[in-house]
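Section 5: illustrative case.
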């Protein structure tokens, strides 16, 4: 599957990847990306994103325009990636932050930078390991 168009709003999936919260209620999610946390108040820049595959087997690049600051997005991904089964490999927190995680046979690189007016840009690249 290849996705490309412009400005799709995302519903956050900050709960467990199983789709249920501790209370048994469904957790809203952007269903195509069940293995990566999606921050609320974000939109997918489909002109700059390219995705192959679906569910937990996709790879490619997601570019999100987030209403949250770069620091908020850093904290969000540091907190949420382990909840989706990702293990931290390395991080660099700077003007442009880079976070690298791995999970089974895949690697996720998250690049965080400031937005043009406010908020931040989140660039997530997922690729096969090796």
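Designed sequence:
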């Amino acid at each position: 599957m290849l996705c490309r168009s412009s400005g799709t709003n995302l519903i956050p999936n900050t709960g467990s990847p199983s789709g249920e919260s501790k209370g048994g209620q469904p957790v809203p999610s952007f269903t195509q990306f069940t293995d990566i946390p999606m921050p609320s108040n974000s939109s997918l820049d489909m002109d700059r994103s390219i995705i192959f595959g679906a569910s937990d087997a996709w790879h490619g690049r997601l570019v999100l325009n987030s209403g949250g600051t770069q620091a908020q997005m850093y904290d969000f991904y540091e907190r949420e990636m382990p909840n989706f089964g990702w293990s931290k490999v390395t991080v660099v927190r700077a003007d442009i932050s880079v976070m690298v995680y791995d999970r089974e046979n895949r690697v996720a690189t998250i690049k965080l930078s400031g937005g043009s007016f406010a908020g931040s840009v989140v660039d997530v690249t997922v690729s096969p390991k090796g």
